């Protein structure tokens, strides 16, 4: 692994560690916020529980204020159970808080899972880096050892090369000396050849002279083909034998001189060998030579083994570099995937925040609508003097007396609308009664009916603003109907049913 790849790996690990630290800090902040929210929820639950007990106690005290019958149907204010309504509202508030808590827990769990994944990745990369460092240290140690062995081998080889060059120079010197001696020998040999030829010529001339002398000294009766004791043929044959013998002697002299030269050369070589080896024992010199040859072969074998191990180490290093590159590519791909997932989650968070903002705006609009309806109902309530009806109820101890002195809100708006309808009916009855007393009931009855309808229309005009999420709570139903949205017709029908339960009629003629 080169320093650049090592530096890139270190930078990648440092970046991942910084990101892991950032995510860990965010997780701690999220846990602290979660703990704060849990503490706040517990405080709110305690406060709600306390308020709930107070409301229950006040409702019980209010219900027990005018108890005249043991019938449970008349022990409630106008057939409604404030305790159950408060319980329903409390349950809705608790469910809302539980939903928010669940979302916060889900976000916390998601953050924890992401942090755990990042920690696992960091641990894996750290373990990989430790393994790479260990392998790198082992390879460097082996390479240093191989380098030291190679240095020893190279030093030995250098010494052997120097010794070989020394012997080669000595050999060349010996060869040059032998060449000089051979040239000198050839020169002496040529001189001896000339001398022998000259002696042979002189010998032939002397023999010829002797033959001529013998020829003149012989008698006339002698044979012409004979010269002294030998014939001419025998003489020629003897001459040939002498020449052959002379050549044989010359060759033997030459062989003898060559043998002496070789002996002298061997003596000089042995003297040089003894001087170099520092010993005169041939067995010891032969043993040293064999030992040197074995050592040279062993060094050659060791060099071959070291080369093979070096090639193997190089292959492992190339494979390790390929694995590192593969891991880096895998890390980059996973990092890109994690960044993409993070962007998607951030976009989801932004979408959720935008949806929450829209819901808050919608809730504010609905709250404004409810407040507008409550304001108009309150104006109509005091416009037609409905508080007198409540005062009469409170004096008689009847239902709906608990509304006296309260303002119109989203919880009691239906009761106020019922009282307004009852007051409108009472006004219409009083008006019809007055017309009957004046004797004009026959002509004005139809007109009174139309005026009644117009009055009902004016009542409808005062409550034209329909709430978008107005809820009707029935004391005899479960909480599953608490999220229904009712129109004005459903509200009027519910008010009519309420009056029928109370035994009243919205329009009762005499």
UniProtKB/TrEMBL annotation:
InterPro entries for the chain: ODA-DC/CCD, ODAD1_CC
Keyword Coiled coil annotated: yes
Keyword line: Coiled coil
Residues annotated as domain ODAD1 central coiled coil region: 92-388
Coiled-coil annotated residue ranges, if any: 108-177, 342-369
Protein name as catalogued: ODAD1 central coiled coil region domain-containing protein
């Amino acid at each position: 692994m080169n320093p650049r790849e090592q530096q890139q790996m270190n930078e990648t690990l440092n970046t991942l560690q910084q990101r892991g630290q950032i995510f860990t800090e965010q997780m701690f902040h999220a846990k602290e916020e979660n703990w704060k929210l849990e503490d706040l929820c517990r405080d709110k639950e305690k406060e709600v529980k306390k308020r709930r007990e107070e409301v229950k106690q006040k409702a019980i005290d209010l219900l027990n204020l005018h108890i005249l019958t043991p019938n449970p149907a008349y022990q409630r204010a106008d057939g409604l159970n404030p305790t159950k309504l408060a319980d329903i509202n409390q349950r809705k508030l608790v469910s809302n808080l539980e939903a928010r808590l669940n979302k916060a827990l889900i976000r916390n769990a998601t953050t924890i899972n992401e942090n755990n994944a990042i920690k696992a990745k960091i641990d894996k990369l750290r373990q990989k880096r430790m393994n790479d460092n260990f392998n790198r240290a082992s390879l460097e140690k082996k390479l240093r050892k191989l380098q030291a062995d190679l240095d020893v081998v190279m030093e030995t080889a250098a010494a052997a090369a120097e010794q070989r060059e020394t012997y080669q120079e000595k050999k060349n010197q010996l060869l040059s000396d032998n060449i000089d001696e051979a040239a000198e020998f050839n020169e002496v040999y040529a001189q001896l050849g000339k001398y022998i030829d000259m002696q042979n010529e002189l010998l032939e001339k002397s023999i010829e002279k002797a033959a001529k002398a013998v020829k003149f000294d012989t008698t006339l009766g002698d044979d012409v083909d004979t010269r002294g004791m030998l014939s001419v043929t025998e003489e020629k044959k003897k001459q040939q034998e002498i020449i052959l013998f002379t050549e044989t002697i010359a060759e033997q002299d030459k062989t003898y001189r060559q043998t002496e030269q070789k002996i002298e050369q061997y003596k000089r070589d042995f003297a040089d060998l003894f001087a170099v080896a520092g010993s005169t024992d041939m067995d010891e010199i032969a043993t040293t030579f064999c030992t040197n040859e074995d050592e040279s072969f062993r060094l050659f074998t060791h060099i071959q083994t070291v080369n093979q191990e070096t090639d193997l180490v190089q292959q492992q290093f190339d494979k390790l570099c390929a694995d590192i590159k593969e891991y880096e590519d895998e890390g980059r791909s996973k990092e890109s995937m994690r960044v993409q997932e993070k962007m998607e989650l951030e976009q989801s968070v932004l979408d959720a925040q935008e949806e929450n903002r829209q819901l808050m705006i919608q809730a504010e609009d609905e709250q404004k609508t409810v407040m507008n309806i409550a304001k108009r109902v309150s104006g109509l309530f005091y416009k037609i003097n409905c508080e007198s009806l409540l005062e009469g109820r409170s004096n008689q101890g009847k239902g709906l007396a608990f509304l006296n002195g309260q303002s119109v809100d989203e919880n009691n708006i239906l009761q106020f609308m019922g009282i307004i309808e009852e007051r409108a009916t009472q006004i219409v009855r009083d008006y019809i009664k007055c017309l009957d007393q004046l004797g004009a009931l026959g002509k004005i009855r139809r007109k009174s009916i139309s005026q009644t309808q117009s009055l009902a229309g004016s009542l409808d005009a005062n409550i034209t603003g329909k709430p978008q999420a107005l809820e009707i709570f029935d004391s005899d139903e479960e909480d599953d109907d608490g999220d229904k949205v009712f129109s004005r017709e459903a509200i009027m029908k519910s008010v009519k049913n309420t009056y029928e339960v109370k035994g009243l009629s919205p329009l009762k003629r005499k």
